[in-house]
Structure formats: C-alpha cells, structure tokens
Design goal:
- By secondary structure, the protein is α/β, with parallel strands linked by helices.
- Helix content is about 55%, strand content about 10%.
- It contains 17 helices and 15 strands.
- The chain has helices at about 30-40, 60-65, 65-70, 80-85, 100-110, 145-150, 155-165, 175-195, 210-230, 235-255, 265-285, 290-300, 320-345, 360-375, 410-435, 440-445, 445-475, and strands spanning about 15, 15-20, 25, 50, 55, 90-95, 120-125, 125-130, 170, 200, 265, 350-355, 375-385, 390-395, 400-405.
- The chain starts with 12 loop residues before the first strand and ends in an 8-residue tail after the last helix.
Length: about 475
C-alpha cells in the first residue's frame, strides 16, 4: 500500500523481487508464487532458497507520481488531457508533508515532463480544538462533520471553518463559528425574501442616490476581494465578502431603498437591486455554493444550464472615491443620531430635529431625504452657531446637533458628566505614573515615550472639554454633549 493523495498514512511496500544465490531473479507477490515461477523460468536450477529484495518502495511512490499519472501521462505522454492540464495552477496541502510529497512531485515533474507540476503551493493549518490540541480520533475531540452539517448546514460549516483559518495558520475550531455561518446564510435568505416580496411601480423614480452608493461600494469590494484572492488570503476574502453583504447590502442599501409597509418600490430601483443581489451572490458563491445557487434560481427565471457556478465573475471597476467618502459621512451621521437615541433612551418612533453646523451644500442635499428616513427626523437645518440645549456629535469635520429641550434629565446628565471626569482623571493619573517613573523613561524606546505623552495631552484635552460642558450646563442650562 501507499500513502494516497489525500495524505492517509500507510506503510512502505517491500519490492516484490526474489533472488537466488546466483543473482537470478523472479518478480512475484509471495514466496510460493516466486518459487513456482522460478522453477518454470529456470528449470536447470535446483535452488529452493529464494531471498526477497531487502529494499522497500518509497512510501510516497504513487503520490509523487500523481500529477502525471492522474492524466495517464506515463502510458500516453502526449495525450490531450496531460497536455491541457499539466502543469496545474495550485496545490493545497499541509506543511508537514512538504518534503515527503511536494518536493517529490516537483522532482518527478522535472524528471518526466521537464517542468514543474504546479505554480503555487497553498499550505493549510492543523485543525485544533479550543484547548489547542490537534483534533484526532484518539483524543475524541473531533466533531462529526455530518452532525455539524445537519445542525448548521453545509454552507454554514464551510464559512465556520474559513472564519477560523487565516492563511497558513492552524485552525482553532469553535463550533460557534459554524453557528455564525448559519446565521449569515439566514441573513442572505431573509434578504431574498424581503426583496422578492416587494411590489413595483413604473411611475416611481429610481433611487439614484442609493444605487450610485452601492454600485461604488460593490466595485470597491470586488477589487479588494480580487486582490485578497491573488494573495491567497482566503479567510480575509470571506470577511470582505461578509461585510459587503451583511453591512453594505443588507444593513444599508436595502434599508435606504426599502419602501414603507404596503407600498411599492420603483421598477428601476427594483431591477437595479436584483442586479446587485446577483452580483453579491456571485462573490459569495465560492464560500456558500448551495444557498447562492438556490437564491440565484429564485430571483429570476433561468434555463437549466444557467447556473451561478458558470456565471461571469463581477467586473472590477474603479470606484468613485468622492462617492465612497460621502457615503461614509452619511453612514456615520445616521449612526451618530442612533447613538444619541440609545444614550438618551429616546424611542425610534419619536421624531427628532438635526442641526448641521455647516453651510448647506450639494452633498447634504443629496443625502437629506435618506437621513431623514432612516433617523426619523422631522427636519434638517443648517447653522453657523452652536444651538443651546442640544446633544452633539462629530462626523469627520462636521458637527451635528440634536435639540433635546425636554428629553434629558438634568440630574442624570450631571451624574454622567461627573463619572466621565473621574474616569478621565484616573486615566491621566496612570499615564503620569509612567512618565514620572525614571526607570521606565530611561529604558523605554522614544516612540513609546511619545505615545504616552500623546495620551497625556489627549487626556488633558478630554478633561478640559468635559469641564467646559459641565460649566455650560450648570451655568447656562445648556445640554450640549460632544462624544469623543
């Protein structure tokens, strides 16, 4: 027996050659077969002592011939298959068999075909349990893949494994990652159900803002994912795909275009959405082939051969950087309003006003309707001065305010500010302790000292900002807050 291409451990095989004392030999499986054959081929010889060759065949003998023999390249060296498929592009294997298998295949490739058998070698890690032990049957710490598939689906298990396997490193397997993979599959499926349930209206205009935003996010993601594939960073490619679908497509784009309950969506917007959905399914397909194929056929009428697995990969088009920057400003603005709601315990159903300390410009005009929709705002206005009795937050270099006249408990606000001051002073004390420690200053690298000094400066600025807020609220009854 040999070690096969999957790397299953086997034993070395003795060479089936049998010799007499004069050097004559017979090839046979057993001693009895060899003796009978010997008597036939050498009738004049009368020996009965045949000795088997003491050498053995390399354990990896069949494996290192695999790149050639799988295409029948030894018996028929110029057949169509070997000429088309040899050499292959990539070999996926484990690092512990680089010498035993990979090196032998390369040597055999140059010996028998005068060229290497593959271009790249991708090394996988060892699957380990939560304790860091190698998974094995003897330890009983290896889960049954079929049980995992029954519980989390085949796609969920694939994603779970990839989430725990950065390129070349060992795989610290955790079953909860398979659960995360299943939840991701549910997210994609529910997105399909949402989109499939919308009614369309030809009279409604296309949502050009949302369409333009996501088209550029998709372009940016495809370029990034292609680059990660080129570098064989498969786990990172999965995470980039995950963020594109979960965050950009489901959490932002679908929310931007989602019509009110019971109302239709514009036909042009719907068609663009189906097109985007198909593109993200293509990107996801290598990681979740089953659910993507199912949704692919659900989204539209397909011919029998029109499957996602043979569809074209999305084209990588350079994204518009300004659109991406404006989109990030929009997302952070929405997130800022939602954070204020959470911090002040304001119901999402209660309308708010948003005041922007800036001059009204085209970008603000473009995103205003979407911001009002997602944040439940009654109005968005612009000012050059700081309004009173308002919570505030910063996005990039723009300051936003939300009037909270009767929505804040002054007592709880003062208590909160006091806790912030105490925390900031505590942090400053710990930094000063390091900087005042002569032993630390003498031994630490200059860049570390610089980091600590920056921490001190930031802490002092933070304390000053909080003190200003405290003074403003106590003396002028202002309720203005800046989150840093």
């Amino acid at each position: 027996r040999f070690r096969n291409v999957t790397g299953v451990q086997t034993c070395a095989l003795p060479i089936s050659a049998w010799y007499d004392e004069n050097g004559n030999f017979i090839v046979a499986k057993t001693h009895d077969e060899a003796l009978a054959l010997y008597k036939t081929q050498y009738p004049d010889m009368h020996t009965i002592a045949l000795k088997q060759d003491e050498d053995v065949l390399d354990t990896w003998f069949s494996s290192w011939l695999w790149p050639i023999s799988v295409f029948d390249g030894f018996k028929d060296p110029n057949n169509a298959d070997i000429n088309y498929y040899y050499p292959t592009n990539d070999l996926i294997t484990a690092p512990e068999i680089l010498f035993f298998w990979v090196a032998r295949m390369i040597i055999a490739g140059y010996e028998y075909r005068s060229e290497k058998p593959f271009e790249n070698v991708y090394l996988t890690g060892i699957v380990r349990d939560k304790l860091g032990r190698k998974m094995s049957k003897s330890l009983g710490n290896s889960p049954d893949p079929l049980d995992l598939i029954d519980k989390y689906s085949a796609d969920g298990v694939r994603v779970g494994m990839l989430l725990s396997s950065p390129a070349g490193n060992d795989l610290p397997f955790d079953e909860s990652l398979c659960e995360q993979g299943r939840n991701f599959a549910n997210k994609v499926w529910n997105a399909m159900r949402l989109v499939a349930g919308w009614q369309t209206d030809d009279a409604l205009p296309a949502d050009e803002v949302a369409i333009t935003c996501f088209r550029n996010k998709l372009n940016e993601a495809v370029i990034n994912i292609n680059s990660l594939y080129d570098k064989y960073r498969i786990s990172e490619a999965l995470m980039a795909t995950y963020r594109l679908i979960w965050d950009d497509f489901c959490a932002w784009y679908l929310e931007m275009i989602k019509p009110e309950f019971g109302k239709p969506i514009g036909t042009a917007t719907y068609k663009a959405t189906i097109g985007f959905f198909e593109e993200v399914l293509k990107v996801l397909h290598p990681f979740m082939p089953f659910i993507t194929e199912e949704i692919w056929h659900t989204l539209g009428t397909r011919e029998a051969h029109d499957c996602i697995i043979v569809s074209s990969w999305p084209e990588a088009v350079q994204a518009d950087e300004k659109v991406l920057k404006d989109f990030e400003l929009f997302k952070e603005t929405v997130a800022g309003v939602r954070t204020i709601r959470n911090e002040k315990n304001i119901s999402p159903k209660e309308t708010l006003q948003l005041i922007v300390k800036a001059t009204q410009d085209d970008t603000a005009l473009i995103y205003e309707p979407v911001i009002k929709k997602l944040c439940n705002l009654s109005s968005i206005t612009y000012t050059q001065s700081k309004p009173e009795r308002a919570a505030s937050f910063m996005v990039q270099n723009v300051e936003f305010f939300i009037p909270l006249a009767d929505k804040i408990d002054a007592g709880s606000e003062r208590e909160k500010i006091q806790k912030e001051i105490e925390y900031a002073h505590g942090f400053l004390k710990s930094v000063n302790a390091k900087l005042n420690n002569q032993n630390f200053v003498a031994k630490a690298k200059p860049e570390i000292i610089a980091v600590e000094q920056k921490k001190k400066a930031d802490a002092l600025a933070r304390i000053q900002t909080i003190e200003d807020r405290k003074s403003t609220r106590l003396n002028s009854s202002h309720v203005s807050e800046s989150r840093m």
